[in-house]
Amino acid sequence: MSEGHTNRYRPLLSGLMRGGPPEAPSPRLAIRKRSAVKRACEGCRQRKAKCDGKQPRCYTCFAAGRECRYAASPDKLQAAAMQRKNDLLEKRIVEHENLYKSLQTLQPEEAQEILRRIRAGKDIESVTENFQEGGQLLQLTSPMASHAPLSTSSGAIPSNPVTGNTETSSLGFVSLQADYLGSGQRFIHCDPPRARLTSRYEHPEYVFEKSWRNTQHRYAENSVFVDLPRYTLPISKWTTVSNDDTLLNHLLLLFWTWDTIGNRVIDRTMFEEDLKTLNPNTPSQPNELRFCSRFLVNALLAVYTTNQATFLLSNDPNTRGQAFAREAARLLSLENTSPSLAVAQGLALMSTYEAALGNEETELSYHSRMQARYLALRLDNVRRSTDAAIAGARQRREAHALSWISWGFYVWDWKLMHGLCRRLIIKKPNRSKTWQDEATSPLCSKDNPDYWWFPYPVSVVPQKSMKRE
User: Fold this and answer.
1) pTM of whole model > 0.70?
2) What share of the chain in percent tops pLDDT 70?
């Protein structure tokens, strides 16, 4: 072979000597064998991810922050189904025992009523529930003290404000309950029953709404007035429509109880304080902050007038509150001479009245005038402090009232402008929401009337109003 042909190959290096020390073998990593998981959680099954099967949470779900659920075994599912069936049977046994024991003490007509309901397709639970919570079974115990008007006389007999029935037995629910327990019979329900609105016709084919059509034209009689002690405000001096303070206080209580829109722009504490202390014939001083006026009082009474004694035409329900509305319109021309908070509040209520019983043009006119009067007040510039160290009691109450009213007007205007697809006129106030402060807010004080609420005149049992929330 030629020399040039030999140089094409790469020269080989000499090998290691065979007598040298042997090299140490490289370390081998011990790879842990994966253990077989018998049951994986539902989340890992759906994602087809590895699951270690640990309970109550596997590592994959724990690291991802997900809820970890395992499908129950067939044995557990069967046991749970048997437990549910057992509980249902025990409940039905108790219901049937209660019904059977109560039938032993019922009058024949009451037992016949239960039988009629069962034949109509009612189940035992609904039948017993209706009788427990104020159905015909417990009519012999009503009217209850919780549904009766309060009286300052200790010997007064309670009456039912809904039915107006004053012929009640002197035995109350407690004594009647003692008679049942003392006779060895078990009564179905030992707690005082609650009034419940049910259809007078319980047949399944009867439509419930048939019995309660045109309820807006049903009005309460004078017998539903509940005479609350220490709640008699001199409202008659603020209006010329009526001098009956009992009727006027009744209408005012209806407003505070059921009107959750209008009282959003009125502070009840300051309104009632000025109503009692101010003279309606005395004109307000410049820059004086008043929370009550004759125009505002008449507008408020017009909004929530449901008694036939205040109808302009006794047979026409569409004229309800019209006498107060006309008086308010007359007073508006006298009071609408300078920026006034009471005038702005009254215009808001009058727009509500016209929207319900008047015409749309008048309602929009009142609302536009309300916006103008409110903007002229510049409530954000009216400085009041809630600090007890630098402000008196009256100023602190005014500060909370202005905060409540300012945000109320903002929400009021937003609702209407949003419905009409118009630009907002009243901007969001700069005042803080002081009524949410648990330390200083009057709504957190149990002495404040707005802390409590009761469904007047159905009941006078108070409960927390949740107005601050």
Assistant:
1) no
2) 70
